[in-house]
Structure formats: structure tokens, C-alpha cells
Specification:
With 250 residues, the protein is of the alpha/beta class. It has a single domain (18-249), classed as 4-Layer Sandwich (Metallo-beta-lactamase, Chain A). It is built from eight helices and twelve strands. The chain has helices spanning 2-15, 20-26, 78-91, 106-109, 112-117, 126-135, 205-218, 236-249, and strands at residues 33-38, 41-49, 55-65, 68-72, 96-100, 121-124, 142-143, 153-156, 159-162, 174-177, 182-186, 224-227. Strands 1-2-3-4-5-6-7 form a seven-stranded mixed β-sheet. Helix 6 (126-135) links the parallel strand 6 and strand 7. Helix 7 (205-218) runs antiparallel to helix 8 (236-249). It is globular and about 45 Å long. It starts with a helix and ends with a helix.
Length: 250
């Protein structure tokens, strides 16, 4: 059974045809997958398991910067973040020198303590640090102060990190990879499989609509959009998210 399982994983990886639904089907507790999506860029996928056994995937990125790596968002939980670091060591074998979490929810930041215990500097929006302190959850020890201003953009190595303003979360930030034309939009963009805006308890849906419309205007040259959950897409993910928000506002 284990041998068949490994063969199945290898088939999906080698052929490059797997989807996140495929990964969910072969998922086991604390497993994390990484997938190369461009030269020097990998998607990492972890899973939350609901009480009924349903698995829900969560995305992050790994970006090569010379002979080191930058991690964008932790895996979903401490155990899966430990597994993520192990998989990165095995499959990429370059050190992670810094990390960025894109807001304070557990699917983005619950592995912060694991990273910091390994000596990895973790950065966030100032509000993310404040919220994690208030929640009593893992706290990023470094903030990018400039991101406190909505619309601000800063360089983070070869990446552009920007604060679009409140959306899915009040502290959500996004990452633009200019050389690859990849937009890591996190949970502020919904995958095509999504039929609702999801959790808006900690966000601002009216601001989210404006953000999405601004992204459509500013990133017409993008090649890929990486959502916080679900499969990678293109410009159509921005249009899909806008439609879902408008439906929510009716």
C-alpha cells in the first residue's frame, strides 16, 4: 500500500499534471508538498483536516534568492511547518534566510515559532504582529513599518511587497515577483473552485472590492496569480474574486 502511494505521488510530480484536489486525495496527516511553478519559485501546499475528514489545502511560496530562500507564509500549523522545512531541505537543499507572513490567520502564520526557533527572521505587517499578540498566537518578531500605510510598497530582496489595504483581513499584504510576473495574492484572491468569498469576519468587504478592482488595473501583465487556497490561475482569478464579492454585497 505504501509503495503504491509513493508511486502515485511520483506520477503526479514527474508528469506535472497534478492538481490540489489530487494532492488532497493522497494527503496524510502532517504531509506537505512543494511544486516548482517557475525557475527558482515553488508552491508549498499544506492541509487543514476538518473533523469529518475533509482536507482543505493552503498555499505559500518559496523563492530562491541567489544561494538562499525566502519563504512566504508558513504551512498550516507547527507540525506541518516542521515538515515543510524538512521537505525543503530534501528537495531544494538551500537555507531559508527570511520569511514573510501575509496576515495573522493560522493558515498564514501558525508556524512562525518553528521558523524563529530555526533562526529564520520572520517579517509581517505591523498590524499582523499586533493581532497575533492580542490573540496569544505565534508572533512575528520583525515588522515592515512602511506597510502600515495602505498603498505602500517595499522591496523585500527581489520581491515587491505591498499593502493594498483591508480586504479578506485587515492586515493582508501581497507579493509581486516582477521577473516572473507572479502575483502572490494570498487569501485576498479566491481560486476558481471557490463559490463564495469565505471568511470575512476579520476583513472589510467594501475595501476588498476596491482592492480587487485596483489589482485588475495594475497587474494586467501578470502571468500567474497564487491564491491562499486552491489552484493557481491567471488574470481570471481577479475577475472571479470580484464577482464573488459583488454577489456577497447584493
Amino acid at each position: 500500500m505504501i509503495f503504491k502511494r509513493i508511486l502515485g505521488v511520483l506520477f503526479f510530480v514527474v508528469c506535472g499534471v497534478f492538481t490540489q484536489s489530487s494532492l488532497a486525495n493522497i494527503h496524510a496527516e502532517n504531509e506537505v508538498f512543494i511544486t516548482k511553478i517557475d525557475e527558482g519559485v515553488w508552491l508549498h501546499t499544506s492541509f487543514y483536516v476538518y473533523p469529518n475528514g475533509t482536507t482543505f489545502p493552503s498555499n505559500g511560496l518559496i523563492v530562491r534568492e541567489g544561494q538562499s530562500l525566502t519563504l512566504i507564509d508558513t504551512a498550516w500549523g507547527e507540525l506541518q511547518t516542521q515538515q515543510l522545512l524538512s521537505v525543503i531541505k530534501t528537495e531544494i537543499n538551500l537555507p531559508i534566510t527570511k520569511a514573510l507572513v501575509t496576515h495573522a490567520h493560522a493558515d498564514r502564520a501558525s508556524g512562525v515559532d518553528v521558523l524563529e526557533a530555526r533562526g529564520i527572521k520572520v517579517y509581517s505587517h505591523p498590524l499582523t504582529q499586533q493581532l497575533t499578540i492580542e490573540q496569544g498566537t505565534a508572533v512575528p518578531n520583525n515588522v515592515i513599518a512602511e506597510l502600515a500605510t495602505a498603498g505602500a510598497q517595499v522591496k523585500f530582496g527581489s520581491l515587491n511587497v505591498f499593502s493594498p489595504g483591508p480586504g479578506h483581513a485587515m492586515d493582508n499584504i501581497m507579493v509581486w515577483l516582477p521577473d516572473k510576473r507572479i502575483l502572490y495574492a494570498g487569501c485576498a484572491v479566491r481560486a476558481l473552485q471557490s463559490n463564495s468569498v469565505g471568511n470575512i469576519a476579520h476583513g472589510d468587504i467594501h475595501s476588498w472590492l476596491k482592492i480587487t478592482q485596483q489589482l485588475k488595473n495594475d497587474y494586467k501583465i501578470l502571468r500567474r496569480v497564487v491564491p491562499g487556497h486552491g489552484e493557481i490561475g491567471g488574470f481570471d482569478l481577479l475577475s472571479h474574486t470580484e464577482k464573488l464579492i459583488l454577489n456577497q454585497l447584493k
